[in-house]
Amino acid sequence: MRSLTVDVIKQAFLQTPAEKLHKKLYAAICNCILEGSLRPAARMPPTRDLANELSLSRNTVLRVYEQLQAEGYISTRTSSGTFVTESVLDNLNTQAARTVPATVPEDRASLSLRCLELLENASASPAQWGDFIPGVPDVESFPHRTFKKIYDRVARRPNPEYLTYDAASGLEELKSALSDYLRTARGVKCTTDQILITEGIHQALDLVTRTLCDPGDNAWIEEPGYWGIKNILRMNAVNISALDVDDQGLMPQANADEKPKLIFVTPSHQYPLGSVMSLPRRQLLLSQAREFQSWIVEDDYDSEFRFSGQPIPSLQGLEENSPVIYIGTFSKTLYPALRLGYVVLPNVLAAPLKKVHNELYRSGHQVIQAALAEFIREGYYAAHIRKMRQLYSKRRNQLVELIKRHLGEEYLGYYNSNAGLHLIIQLPAAADDIHIAKLANVEGILVRPLSRYYFNAQKSKGLLVGFASVQDDNMLPSFLRLVKTIKYKAY
Ligand SMILES: Cc1ncc(COP(=O)(O)O)c(C=O)c1O
């Protein structure tokens, strides 16, 4: 006997537009079930009957039934036939509830308090390339051809392990090249096993915070200091004590109410003011860290660029087994978009932090790491740093001369040391550095206001002016526009 359901499905089938027959039949049956013309528990027509009625192959109908069954629309009872699933609409409703529509109203976004706090303090600049941008190297001087040649060689026949998840905390070749480099160039005491490759310092700061602090713990940061660390600490619910810096770097507190779990410092070149941490201050900090059982996190972000005097060795290497986690990056020596950095972990932390890193971030980029290892081993890395050191030194001198000539010596920040990728133009206390920076940014001059780097009320006003990436032809005209903005803005 011809079943009524065949007619229902046939009608729907004829009205359903779709090029492929199996898609058309699938859509027709789904519609019938969803709009109720095929009710829960209704018997489905035998596949042979339906195929004959619709002039389809039986295989096509079987395939569609299989799909509907897999998705829970229909189910088969052994020796009695195929039926529309009794709870089909409940199932579909819960499925729909699970796939929450993308259009959650804004007032229901339910962001965490930590997230709201971070959004309120978001500091990453929306523009990342323009004259006088601080912290960005001259990416146009990168030896792209040389690097591409090495990269192409590696990528032509990559080791299969380069193409899967990285489970070794970075490529062995890169870690080994780095440990040699860090021992000689930065005086870091390390073996390859202590090195962990990260996606830059930013990720490394997040990793150490998450692994070494619990919510409610305390951390010391520099005041003023790197904005990124504040957001990471906020997001991990760690209390922040922002300690002043002077011409010798961070001033530790002898009688801290709350002992810090972590102490974040930039000893080689205080960020952003520029002082170098003196030897007595380093020794004091190390002894306090031991007393408090804290870890010092040494952010050595731009130490390769020191333009006079001796290079300043790392704090980590000052003592055997120092309580220091050393962090570095290729963002300043090569370019930020590489997103490659490294951590030198004290032995006791190496295994757990590598494991956590692997669990949290699922790293990769082994092909580029292999190319970078070769780039370092063949001496191109050191040569590029030497070349950039000369270029940045020249640009820094030009900028200093321009500041003296067009603004006056008093505008040179007191702690500016002859190093790094930026310097500070000091502004009078009454100046609104945020507003001045905004006006300059509109003109394409990407200086940043010093006020943004303070955690508590700012003590000093100024502008961070990057000299590394300004092309020679732009230096004077862009600087004169900046001077105009500074002088125009009355304070
Ligand atoms: C002091 C300091 N630390 C860390 C970073 C971030 O480095 P990375 O690009 O490796 O995340 C920056 C970037 O400007 C910085 O200025």
Automatic annotation (TrEMBL):
Residues 19-87 form the HTH gntR-type domain. It comes from the Bacteria. SUPFAM superfamilies: PLP-dependent transferases, Winged helix' DNA-binding domain. Transmembrane segments: none annotated. Keywords: DNA-binding, Pyridoxal phosphate, Transcription, Transcription regulation. One of its GO terms (molecular function) is DNA binding. PANTHER family: HTH-TYPE TRANSCRIPTIONAL REGULATORY PROTEIN GABR. In the C-terminal section; belongs to the class-I pyridoxal-phosphate-dependent aminotransferase family. This is GntR family transcriptional regulator. It comes from Buttiauxella agrestis ATCC 33320.
